[in-house]
Design brief:
About 85% of the residues lie in helices and about 0% in strands. The chain is an all-alpha fold. Helix 1 packs across helix 5, helix 3 runs antiparallel to helix 7 and helix 5 packs across helix 6. About 5% of the residues are buried.
Length: about 200
């Protein structure tokens, strides 16, 4: 537990220079205003439309993205000191920042747990691991051969960016509840679900 607290504090310290931007991105990703979902989808659609229109190669896209990230990483901390004064940072913002850092820390721990689960399964249940990983790889290869790569990347990016808002606003629970209801109804032999008035 002590080790996790140290990791959390290190992560929070590393993100201190970016806290205003992180809170802004968090408000967009969690749709604090109703139109933020449209803004997120519009920005992602515009970027992919631009990539499609310019017909950039993968290496060019990676190089340009790396250039933008490098320049932003260099200039933003300097500009943020001029734009955002530390005396304007309030307690409510600090609390929100800590919640976001905790969410990122939890996501990092989940990815780490999944990584360890996969490699533990590989060493303990090697036959099952080979069957499962081969099946997943064949399905991914089939999807990749039937869909355009840029379209596939666009859909993955769009779903990934909209996921926090869907989860935060309860839409994901609503959809999974509907799917479970339909599935249970079909298994129970009840036929179609009747709408309640």
């Amino acid at each position: 537990m002590d080790n996790q607290k140290k990791e959390y504090n290190r992560l929070k310290h590393n993100m201190e220079n970016w806290r205003e931007l992180i809170l802004l991105l968090n408000s967009f990703l969690k749709w604090e205003q109703k139109y933020y979902a449209g803004v997120v989808a519009g920005v992602i659609s515009f970027v992919f439309l631009l990539i499609w229109y310019l017909d950039l190669s993968f290496v060019t896209c990676v190089g340009l993205a790396g250039l933008v990230v490098t320049l932003f990483d260099y200039f933003y901390p300097k500009l943020s000191k001029m734009l955002f004064k530390s005396e304007n940072w309030r307690g409510t913002q600090e609390k929100q920042f800590e919640e976001v850092v905790q969410d990122i820390f939890n996501a990092k721990n989940r990815v780490s747990a999944l990584y360890h689960f996969v490699f533990d399964a590989k060493s303990e249940k090697s036959t099952l691991f080979i069957l499962a990983s081969s099946t997943v790889c064949v399905i991914l290869a089939w999807i990749g051969s039937t869909m355009n790569n840029l379209l596939l990347l666009y859909l993955v990016s769009l779903v990934s960016a909209l996921y926090p808002g869907l989860l935060h606003n309860g839409y994901l629970k609503c959809v999974t509840g509907l799917i479970e209801g339909r599935f249970n109804c079909k298994l129970g032999g009840g036929g179609d679900v009747k709408k309640e008035n």
